[in-house]
From TrEMBL:
InterPro entries xref list: ATPase_NBD, ROK, ROK_cs, WH-like_DNA-bd_sf, WH_DNA-bd_sf
Pfam family, one: ROK
Organism name: Lederbergia galactosidilytica
Biological processes, Gene Ontology terms: D-xylose metabolic process
UniProt protein name: ROK family protein
PROSITE patterns: ROK
Family stated for the protein in its record: Belongs to the ROK (NagC/XylR) family.
Organism domain of life: Bacteria
Length: 393
């Protein structure tokens, strides 16, 4: 009985300590007295828990705050540089890495283009990037506290990439491979799920409890925040809406299905259509998203038409999503978000023709300001939250 009572006291203390810590994060700078008021804990408990958090370097004291009549209180702040997290976004043709502090601020970033589907090539580049980031990380009490990786494919609960069709990856034990190399806790997540979380935490989705994030890159992935929580489905495989059929007798997709949405509304669709219009100039060796973006910026009517067409097909798929989920907000993310001025009108026109009137109430369509950073920030946040949850005790 005594051991059970001791265990219960330990659990209560841990919960109270985490509550105090969260209050400092949310309201920093804040005094001990204000923490007691906000949490409902007595001042003695707050003072004891604060002292532990200071000793563990998670919070620190600053100069006195404003007085309400008596002695000026010492203010407490979150030590956001107590440790750092690495967030990686694996695009189909690029690798983006960021180093963030415990508050999600980016301190370092690296990006490289990769034109290969070989996992061995990607592994070598991934290892090199992470080693490089680790070597460049400022000194801190806890160092690198975690690595998060967003992958454009289906990931199981054990961090295994079951299928990433646009990379031709199948059954890759990515979490095990990275943890063996770096000896650092690692989280592998679907890129769109990570992007949805990144938008909810740091982007245009902060105020939405029913958020659909549509990552439009070489393929299309969808992440869902439902009732304020990331929805992953029964086995973590939700959000593969880039592979819903919008054309029954359409082209064959790399996933094995026909007429998938991403064959009509993604970067690969844009490039395929550009080839048909012969948009390659004499001094250009290969069509790319960046090249077509540059053409559109310079007023090329064919390129602008292609982006308009992408917008139309995005509208078709979004109508299906709206009918299924009745979201509060849809965020268009990844690199296609930067083409808003060409795709927004045609996207909204398609929705206007298809959407049912009652679905329009309170629905917002937004474009991400984070671009391809949404996923990197999202997985970095997962790692940070895991670390803090288990470290505050």
């Amino acid at each position: 009985m005594k051991s059970e009572k001791t265990w219960n006291q330990h659990v209560v203390k841990k919960e109270n300590k985490f509550l105090v810590f969260k209050t400092v994060i949310q309201s920093s700078p804040i005094s001990r007295a204000e923490i007691a008021t906000k949490t409902g804990l007595n001042k003695g408990t707050v003072s004891s828990l604060v002292n532990e958090l200071i000793e563990e370097k998670f919070i620190y004291e600053s100069g006195p705050g404003e007085s309400s009549g008596g002695r000026r209180p010492v203010m407490l702040l979150f030590n956001e540089t107590a440790g750092y997290s690495i967030g990686i976004n694996i695009g189909v043709n690029y690798l983006l890495g960021v180093l963030t502090d415990l508050n999600g601020n980016i301190h370092l970033e690296k990006q490289i283009n990769i034109n290969s589907q070989s996992f061995e090539v990607w592994q070598e580049k991934l290892f090199s990037m992470i080693h490089n980031i680790i070597q460049s990380t400022p000194k801190s009490p806890y160092g690198i506290i975690g690595i998060g990786v967003g992958v454009p494919g289906t990931v199981n609960m054990d961090g295994k990439v079951l299928l990433a069709p646009n990379l031709s990856w199948k059954n890759i034990e990515l979490q095990s491979i990275l943890e063996e190399e770096f000896k650092i806790p690692t989280i592998i997540e679907n890129e769109a799920n990570a992007g949805a979380y990144g938008e909810k935490k740091y982007g245009v989705g902060k105020d939405s409890n029913h958020l659909i994030y549509v990552s439009v890159g070489i393929g299309i992935g969808v992440g869902m925040i439902l009732n304020g929580q990331l929805y992953k489905g029964n086995n973590g495989f939700s959000g593969e809406l880039g592979h819903m059929s919008i054309n029954v007798k359409g082209d064959l997709c790399r996933c094995g299905n026909e007429g998938c949405w991403e064959l009509y509304a993604s970067e690969q669709a844009l490039i395929q259509q550009a080839k048909k219009l012969n948009l390659l100039s004499a001094d250009q060796t290969d069509l790319s998203f960046e090249y077509l973006l540059d053409l559109a910026e310079n007023g090329n009517e064919k390129a602008i038409y292609l982006f308009n067409r992408i917008g139309e097909y995005l509208g078709v798929g979004l109508n299906n999503i709206i009918n299924i989920f009745n979201p509060q907000e849809i965020v268009i993310g990844n690199r296609m978000a930067s083409t808003k001025k060409w795709i927004q009108t045609s996207l909204e026109s398609q929705l206007a023709d298809r959407i049912q009137f009652f679905q329009e109430d309170d629905l917002q369509i937004k474009f991400s300001n984070l671009s391809s950073y949404s996923a990197a920030l999202g997985v970095s946040a997962f790692s940070t939250e895991n670390f803090l949850q288990f470290s505050i005790h």
